[in-house]
């Protein structure tokens, strides 16, 4: 059995990876995984104040986030990949791809910092970084296995005996991206990502109800209360177990080492916060009507309480944009 698995793995690497020029992609994939695991272990050890491990990198009183090192590493390795793409040397490009993967892991691990423009690494908003890493791994893995966007489109066109021209390819790409954008706006991130490679999933995602907290629900369901109620009921009945499992895995990867004792109560509290209808957009001017700006993002309720004359209510979560990601040692 062991010999059979070894032979199959060797054949796959030689035939599907090396001969087809996918070795840099495989090395990038491994660099992304290893970089994410290493940086997560590192920040957990720093947070636990382990004496034998490294401390935070600082410049004076300024904490330097590891996203900075990721940006520098991806820029340098990306420049090298462009420079050596002409020669096509897989050995050199594989080394550069590994560095690019590590740099991408450092960036995506602090994707929430970029998205929210504030330090949310150890809060529930910080779990967005884990989602970003998983999406990048899923997309890279599908390309590595031979799946490519638009392949199913072109197979369908061949069955219909429609020739591939530049116009046909541009239209197919535009339709694919447009459907994926609608699915993502409906709050179905994974369906949108995988659907880029398998367009029937996009058709399913477009026709199904949007998640009640999604921008699509905000724009389309507020004037249709029955549809919004159906979306909320579906969220509670079908998606709640999946959300519970997702939060558990995210906390296990990105949370405290002692996450297990409190995971059940924390999960239920988080689910109660997540399953609710999308709020209507506020009026930005008495003369301009409703704004199309997305509001109600995590953290908005905190700032609203601070801006009120009474200040934050009892039990309010005090969050600061300036608290460090990891405590200084």
UniProtKB/TrEMBL annotation:
Bias kind Basic and acidic residues: ranges: 316-329
Keyword DNA-binding: no
UniProt region (Disordered), positions on chain: 273-329
Transmembrane segments: 23-43, 63-84, 96-117, 129-150, 162-183, 189-210
Keywords: Membrane, Transmembrane, Transmembrane helix
Record carries keyword Disulfide bond: no
Protein's name in the database: Integral membrane protein
Source organism of the structure: Gordonia sesuvii
